[in-house]
Amino acid sequence: MNTSMRVNPNPNTRRRVVSVLLALSASAAALGAPGAAAAQEPSHANAAVPLIRWGTCPKAEPPYPDPSPSAQCATVKVPLDWAKPKGSKIGIFVARYRATDPARRIGVLMSNPGGPGAAGADDALYADDPIGGYSPAMLPRFDMIGFDPRGIGRSQNAECDETITGSIPARPRNAAEFERMRTLNSRLADSCLKKTGALAAHMDGESVARDMDAIRAALGERKISFIGHSYGTFLGERYARLFPGRLRALALDSAMDPDRPDAERYLTDGSVTIDNTLKRLAAWCKTDTACALKGKDLMAVTDKLFARADAGTLRDPGPNGPTRTKVDADKLSDFLTFALGKGSPEGTARQLAALNTGKGEVNWLPVGTNSDSQLVLCRDYDFRIRDYAQYLAIRKRVAKAAPHVRYNAQALDSVLGCQGWTMPPKPRPARAKGDLPPVLVANATHDLATPLPGAQRMARSFPKASLFTMDVVGHWLYRRGGTEKAMRVIDTYLTNPKG
In terms of domains, do 131 and 177 share one? Predict the structure, then answer.
């Protein structure tokens, strides 16, 4: 196992930027743009879903690279509301990169990059990308299938009144601010319904899983293999519950907790992970000369920073000494979450040293969630908190479990973003009958976004599952770079899930 303090980068970032720049409206595709689903219906296709007629893919805007010339694109029509299969339809943007060796082709590998609310067609559009694509050994074996989930990207993108978000209290400090946050979240949700229509209320994981099966039918495939990353693992779990017999293999990388944890458990798991990551940084700092705090007790330094923040005496550092800008405990917790989870150990220690001495620079990142994430997450998880008193009680218990960081800012953003959301959580679907293949779950031991306890619960939720872990800090194991070992393990599983 890799025990270094290096943080795994997220190589999907560039692909997500390209995804935005490749935006193609679903309405244009429905009007006959290349790639619209054909009206043909071969005998071996699902009678309700015509087989796809593939077309060319939209080009990227410079300076971003165009999709692979081997990629093909299409739109698959699905019910807006799966409870009304004969009702209104929406388009799902789908991309394919065909197996390069048809004689060795295993089948279809569908994927989703998570988010929640991230576009996913790029997984196929850039399948052969040397940085963010699949390994060369996988390209001959599978047709790579990516799609933009309903309401996202090129699949009839949802719209909300984003001007509301700037007024929402990010860290409510009293009952009045807590209620203001709920009221504004409610207005934001209502604006999504007004601007997007009924689709805004149907962006949950179960609906997306049913869309995935419609894509499978449109491909003319009896079974699919699936790899989900981050929130994409939730979609994989939902697909397995609904269509177990239609899975050949299921790989879940950086796994969500499938058991619908409440706000407190969700916050606690994430916060303890960040607290343990700080302890890991402190252990590294004792022996590595690259640490700006070498020779000091990093845990004690951090505890004193919180004491100064509570007392109102901690200031934002500057090039010549402390500035007049106060740093409160919430801002310190927010910094620690993202510095420990996504930054380098050297950079995190250097910024902690700057806070300690008052001289230097700290990279403060904005907090908060986004409407795409809220439209998905607040329907799939039940994070509702009764009132400010309950919120304070939860915060105190979480801080006791993670005393050196107090909370995980990313998890808290998600929880607070669902307070007052007017589209309530959707019940977890019943598990359908059918045999599942062996499942592979993979996770970093120190993952701020999908903590290891959730991945362990994900593995336990399947009759036959194995859990692969790497002793690293970061998110997304399946990408080239520092976690190529995980990539090899997952590739081996996908090509031969039964071992």
Answer: no
